[in-house]
Amino acid sequence: MEVRWELMLIIVGGxxxxxxxxxxxxVVLSKMKLPAWSMRWLHYIPIAIMAxxxxxxxxxxxxxxxxxxxxxxxxxxxxxxxxxxxMGTVAVGIxxxxxxxxxx
Length: 104
Known about the structure:
Largest sheet: none
Strand content: under 5%
Order of helices and strands: HHHHH
């Protein structure tokens, strides 16, 4: 198989363009001391992103899947809150979705 330089440049360029918005803020913000209010605000960003992703997947697509995703989310959220284990949460989510799709 022959590797063309144009293809190699496209792959390297894509990698650089993908890394710049991820690495640049990390490098710049690691050298700065942020105020306490901004650190409190940044603390809630992962929770807000996860809530937006989950609500979109569970509520907007619920009618398409016959509300199976909502039923699968109940034990998954319960395990997440009680154990705070990522592996346990993922395992329960996969298992509950598998069982619900098998029986319904």
